[in-house]
Each structure stands twice: as C-alpha cells, then as structure tokens.
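User: I'm writing a tutorial on reading structure tokens. Could you give me a worked example: one chain, its sequence, then its tokens, then a sentence or two explaining what the tokens reveal?
Assistant: Sure. Here is the example chain.
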Amino acid sequence: MFSIQFCPESDESLTSYLVRLSLDNGISILNLWNKCRKPGMPSPQRGDMHLIDTLPNSVFDIERLALLCNVSANELYKGTFNNLHHVFNCDGIAEKSRFFKGIIRSEIHFCPNCLSEKAYIRSLWRIHGINCCIKHSRYLRECCQQCGHTIDVNQLLSPTVCPHCSGNLSEDINDRNVNNDVLIIQEWLFLAWADLIYDCSLPPTEEREIGLKLLYIVNDKEPVYNRANLKKVLESYNLRLDSALQYIRGTLKQRRKLHLNIILKILFDHNLSISEFFNINIPDSFKKSIIKGNAKKLEIVCLSPWCISYGTDKSIVRTGTLSKVYDDGSYLKRHVACLDCGCEYGLNRDGEVKEKSYFAKGYRFLQEFKPSSLAEFQRISGLPLNACGRIVAYFQVRDLFDFRSVTVEEDLLASFAKAVIKNMCLTDIQKWTCWKDKYHYLIHRLHPDIMRQLIQLKRPAKERLPKLECWERLVQCCDEYISADVTITIESIASQIGITSATVSKWGFTAYIKEMKEKQKTLRLEKRKDKWYKMIDDLFAQSICNKVFSKDIYKQLKVKQSYLCAVAPEINEYIRSCRTEIS
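And here are its predicted structure tokens:
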C-alpha cells in the first residue's frame, strides 16, 4: 500500500487522482501504474494515459489499485466513464464503438477558480460540449494562460502546473462571463453528464430500447407512430427514419449505435432529464407500430389525451364506412370511433392513424394558449371559425374548458336523444326553435351521451337515385319552381330531389341551379317592370291636368330612384318622358 493515502474527490477524474497520488508518494505515475496494471498488459506508456478515464478495465486491475490506494473500487470507477459503458451496454466494444467518438477530450480544459479552491481535474471538464464552469459562470480555459499551449492528458504532471512552462494554471485571468442562454444549455448538459457518469442506479439499456424511447419522444409521446411527422423531425437531427427503424428492429447488416450527442440533443430539445428518459414507459401500441413496421395491420387506438381509453382500443368501434376519398384528395379507410370521447379515426394510404375530427388538435391549442374568445382561438389555431366553435363546445360540455355560461338542459338532452333514436336528421334538429343560438345547440349535440348514441345508431341506408335520374329531376324541379315563382336555392332543390347539397356540388349540378336562379331573377324583374309601367300610366292618366312630381311617382311605385338606376334605368327614362309630355 502507498504510504500516503487519500480518497479521490467526488467529481475528480481517475487520471487526476493518480497524478496527485504519485506526486504525494514521490513516484512517477508510470511506476504507480505498473504496480497495478492489467495482467498481460505491456509496460504502461504516457501515450496510453487517455485510456485511464475512458477504459479503466482495459489498462488497470481495478481491485488491486483499490487495495493499494485503500479505497473502494466503486470510488475509483466514479472518476471514469465506466458507468456509460454499463448503461449503454458498451462493455468490451467501447474502444471500437462510434457511440463515444469525439465525446471525450484528449486535451485538458479547466477553470482557474476551481483549481485555486481545490487542485484537481474534474471529470466533466473532459467532456466535449462542457465549455463552462457552472459554479463560477465562466468559460473553461483551453490552454495555459501564460505560454498558450494546450495540455494533452498524456502530458499531465500536476493538476495545477503547465507541463510546457511550469506556469500556474490556477492563476485567475478576467475572462468574459457566460451569457444566460449559453448558461442554460451548459447547466442542462452538466446535470445530464453528472447523471450518466455518477448515477449507478441507471439501468443497462439495450440500443433498441434506447431507439424506441427516442422515437417515442420525437413522436410527441403519441401511442402510434406518425411516419410523416417523424421523418421530418429526424431530418433535423441528420437521421433517416428508415435507418432508425432498421436500428430498432435489429435488421441492420452491421451492428450500430446511435451517437450519444444525438441522444442528448433530443432530450434537451424536449426538456427531459436523463433519469426521466430512462424511466419512460413506452405503450405497447407504439412498440407494435414500430417493430411490426406495418401500421396497416394494427388495431386503431384512441389518440385523445383526455379520454379514459387513451392509448387503447377497448372503446373503439367501427362506424360502417369502409373507405372514403375527400375533396382535398386525402383517403381514409377502416373508419372507427371511440365510444368514450366520440373522436373518429381512420387509416390513410400509408397505414397511419389519422383523426377525422379536429378535437385533438384543438385540445393542444386550448391547453397551451388558453384563448379568451372564439376569435382569438381561431386566430391562434388557424382553424375555421365553425370548427373552433365545435371544439370549444365539445370541451366545455366535458368540463375541460370554460368558455361561456351555457348549461346542458336535461329535458332538451332527452328530446335530442329521442330524435336520434327516431333517425331524425341532425339538420332538422338544429332548426328546433328551442335553441337560443348555435352554441346552445352544439353543447347538446356534442354531449358524450348524444355522441355515443350517434356512433352506435344503425341507420337504414337511404335509397339513392342514379346521377342521371337526379339530373332529370333537378331540371324538372327548377322548371316547376320558376313556373310557381318559388325561390330557387341549392338546399331546397337538393331536398326536393332527395340528395344533399354536398352531392349536388360533387356531381356538378351547382352551375345549372345558379343559371336557373339568374333566369328566375330576370323573369321576376320583367314582371315587376310591367307592373311599374302600368302603375306609371295609371298615375299620369289620373293627373292629366295636374303637375306630377317625381317624388310622388316613386312613392307610388314604392321604390327609390337610385334602385331603379341600378336594376331598370329605362323606367326612370320613361318617367322623365311622361313628365315632359304633360309639361
């Protein structure tokens, strides 16, 4: 055992400890090293000193070193990066693995203030990316402040003495302070690396599990992975989704590991600590969606964070719609709905689960921004105003968001439920005179009981006319409306035929209806003109000997002169000519 013995500092690197121990015992570090080198290892050289902290088991018999120093092996390991090998399962391959490439510095960085307080090299100073001293809010020195030379770890003779000029490394030089933005990043890195190096309670984790956790985080912790979103986000980290999936599934031809810097960057961007990362529990639905590699075969689960069935398929039921192509060209199949929250989902062409409604998107905006008005919500979210109204009503009736003092009336809710059972159209229900406004209707329409009832309702399929027959009936209906002088609207014509306004638009019938509306407008105007001419003639016939004023004429016609200038200027001209003849 060494004559002078002391324990390493809690955050001291093993190299620094051995340098101090050899100095105090009056022997060279190479002689000390030789006493406890790993069996079979050739005589140690200074060129191998960088291995003391990074791969202690490859150059030392740690148990013998602990015996000579009269300290525990665990105390010695705390001064190395051995815990990293344990946590990330790099034992035996760490030297060859790209996992640590570029992470451990070969040159000594230091804080003069720390060295003046206690003369030893801190382990964290050897980490690439740790550029500041958190305690003193200053940048670490990269070289001797007297001679300007960098100090390689293989050259280290004393923690406070420059091996090139024997200058005192603990002498303070007024350096610029670290700004707050940099300090925030450095504080997070400091804590993260402290956990990785010193926290022996972190469990060893397979690389596939680490990859799964990272994708789950980048996927915003949704229960099923979103391929399009993941691909975009991973590109910002210079990662390809296909490679990441192969890495997780273990289908790469050559075994690889994600670089530790990428892991740390993702955790920092998502404000997660190392302990939080290792304690993340990944839902089975997410694991299946990744490992199976085919979301098309997955059971769709509820994606609504507020729902009691979130992340499970226990309340998912089919709605009856097999597939549908929407106006924007998007396509969904296997339409389902959740009985607990009422949200509807489907699978797109890539097999990804998509919400048909917009409640999940609206929920995120409401939680983050808490808008005070519907207009503010519409401006922040970019959603249509009608959609914003439905979202707000949906969450208010569930006591998740307080927007207006509107309460659910039990008698109206019961009437609504009875109407749904009788297959009454929702459009007709909305026209009930009991509703104070549209929001009052939505509070009841989006009530959990009504939404569940609508999902479970088995509606008899309506007999649908062929497109050609609908066209013939539409032409006939427009002619009848014109003959009977009934106002033509798309809604009234569609209702008369037995199809929806959306179908009228989809089949291209809208242009013809608008043409008929213009024709009806023209015919009505011609009838009014004939009526006005007759009224003018009658007025002048009764006033042959009296002067007729313009204001009396327009009062008799019950129109303004400006209106006639716009729709029938010839009537004004006729009035002027009649007055000229009398005068």
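What the tokens reveal: Residues 92-96, 293-298 have pLDDT under 50 and may be disordered. The CA atoms of residues 212 and 563 lie 72 Å apart.
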